[in-house]
Write a structure and sequence with these properties.
heterodimer, A: 386 residues, mainly alpha, Na+/H+ antiporter like fold, B: 160 residues, alpha+beta, Alpha-Beta Plaits, 2 domains, five-stranded antiparallel β-sheet, four-stranded antiparallel β-sheet, 3 helices, Cation:proton antiporter regulatory subunit (chain B), KhtT-like_N (chain B), KhtT (chain B), AAE_transporter (chain B)
Chain lengths: 386, 160
């Protein structure tokens, strides 16, 4: 068969399969991410239906997926919000970082994977999936709740931490010597700072350049700018994802809303491809041996997130039930944990890291939203008795 | 009363306050223009037990329903501050000779020197109605003038 024909057949079948899985997830009321990962496992090496030719194409699609995920995340916030959240919630944010980076890092060290893998695993357990959490909040009608601003500002803090963490991780994974590594990290942090400053001071100029009444022009300009900056960032060892995130932050106001609405379908397509790609790279036969460890890690990091949410909400003067809700809302992990694990796998980290991260995210992306749904009636009962 | 404003990063803004009777209510303004009216639980004051999604039109309707009597009250207050000026709210009884007739037929201003400044119908305020405004039973006519003239308007609207 012709190469293009096979490519279309495979890629089409994958997308169609994802669509069917997405419909199932919708009916079950869970996030589609775990199902996409499972689909990837099935199509990948060692899976039931290995793909022949489209893997390379999917890998590029996955890279674009990461850029679009981070770009739309950045579009949700503007620079002022980031700065004010940084000021108001620094303490809760640091508690979040310490408590939730620890389980992953400690596990990696216990398993003897070395400090670089520990840094990557710290990121895998640290970041809450802002996408899944936002959906949980809206599905359960928790957006109006008084603990919700606390949860949201923790998410903002985490995303900002990512902007600093990802460049450091990229530089460390590149295996640079201490000096050149330090220089790379320095360049990375300087770039992040400069872009944030530009976004704060000259955001209007960038918007004036990008803005257009025509959707087509706007789409091309935003995606073009994001890919361009992502490429430059990658070249500077800052990580393409961070570049795209910073472009998103620089754009704000009506322009950001318009761009977000335009990008949403494109992001959904490529993000799904990204999750499949991560599954493709992971050998499903390797998951079983690490499943128990992943489950234990999931349990521990669920408790640490719960503690984080409760601590932050108590500081904000929220009552017991609200504290527990804040904790449970923070449990889901998803896209960024996979992005981080993906970076580590691509750089040739320990072979068990990919399967472990996949199993871990599978558990928490599926169970996090369910847990929130199950405990809602429990909280109501507790509140009534109190 | 203090209205609390909280930023919801990535979503929009929330305004909330506690009513005199101790209930907490709020409005979430999404960036997309959507409005949510939220009512907090009695048992758990942090939890929104009801969240009603409102589009632009529905939000406007709610504002008018809640706002109309307040506008009349404020009008009364303003007039009370001017000495000798009275404002009355006169309901149109079903037996009034002016029911289903244009307001101009009553020739209120010529006969009494008082002015009809607004009509309240179904909670909605029609400010400065013209002479061709058709009166319906149940309308409330807001009239401004001296004590005597406004009392006369009441008689005219009731008996002709």
């Amino acid at each position: 068969m012709h190469h293009t024909a096979i490519l279309f057949l495979e890629f089409g079948a994958v997308l169609l399969g994802l669509g069917v899985l997405g419909a199932l997830a919708l009916r079950a009321g869970i996030s589609a991410i775990p199902l996409y990962l499972i689909a990837g496992l099935a199509f990948g090496t060692g899976g039931v239906l290995p793909l022949a030719t489209s893997e390379e194409f999917i890998s590029i699609g996955a890279e674009i997926g990461v850029v679009l995920l981070l770009l739309t995340l950045g579009l949700e916030y503007n620079a002022d919000e980031l700065v004010s959240s940084l000021k108001g919630n620094a303490r809760a944010g640091i508690v979040d970082l310490v408590l939730n980076a620890a389980p992953g890092a400690i596990l990696a060290l216990l398993l003897g994977w070395g400090p670089v893998a520990a840094l990557a695993m710290a990121g895998v357990t640290y970041a809450t999936s802002s996408g899944i959490t936002a959906k949980v909040l809206s599905d359960l009608g928790w957006i109006g709740n008084r603990e919700t601003p606390t949860v949201l500002s923790l998410l903002v803090f985490e995303d900002l931490t990512m902007a600093v963490y990802l460049p450091i991780l990229t530089a460390t994974l590149a295996g640079l010597s201490l000096l050149s590594g330090a220089i790379a990290v320095g360049i990375a942090l300087a770039t992040v700072t400069v872009v944030l400053l530009i976004a704060l001071r000259f955001g209007k100029w960038i918007e004036a350049f990008v803005s257009s009444p025509n959707n087509e022009v706007l789409l091309l300009k935003v995606v073009g700018l994001a890919l361009l900056v992502a490429g430059i960032a990658q070249q500077l060892q800052v990580s393409a994802a961070v570049g795209a995130f910073l472009v998103g932050i620089a754009l704000s106001g009506q322009l950001a809303h318009d761009a977000q609405a335009l990008l949403a379908p494109l992001r959904d397509l490529f993000a799904a491809v990204f999750f499949v790609f991560f599954g493709l790279q992971t050998d499903p036969t390797k998951i079983l041996p690490v499943a128990a460890i992943a489950a234990a890690l999931a349990l521990v990091s669920m408790l640490t997130k719960l503690a984080t949410g409760m601590y932050a909400a108590r500081r904000a003067g929220i009552s017991k039930a609200g504290q527990a809700r804040a904790g449970i809302a923070l449990v889901p992990r998803g896209e960024f944990n996979i992005v981080i694990a993906g970076l580590a796998v691509a750089a040739g980290a320990h072979p068990d890291l990919g399967p472990l991260a996949a199993a871990y995210v599978l558990i928490l992306a599926a169970f996090g939203p369910l847990a929130a749904k199950l405990v809602q009636p429990l909280f109501e009962a507790i509140a009534k008795r109190a | 009363m203090e209205v609390e404003q909280t930023a919801l990063p990535g979503i929009g803004l929330r305004h909330e306050f506690t009513t005199h009777s101790g209930r907490r209510i709020g409005v979430i303004s999404h960036r997309t223009g959507r409005r949510d009216l939220v009512i907090y639980s009695k048992d758990d004051p942090d939890r929104a037990c009801e969240a009603v999604k409102l589009n632009d039109e529905e939000a406007d309707a709610l504002v008018e329903l809640l706002g109309a009597p307040r506008i009349v009250a404020r009008l009364n207050q303003a007039h009370a501050e001017v000495e000798g000026l009275v404002s009355l709210q006169l309901p149109i009884p079903a037996t009034s000779p002016y029911v289903n007739r244009p307001m101009g037929d009553a020739r209120v201003r010529t006969r009494t020197n008082a002015s009809i400044v607004a009509i309240v119908r179904n909670g909605q305020v029609y400010a400065s109605p013209g002479p061709d405004f058709v009166l319906l039973p149940g309308d409330i006519v807001v009239v401004v003038g001296s004590a005597d003239s406004t009392a006369e308007v009441g008689d005219i609207l009731a008996e002709g």
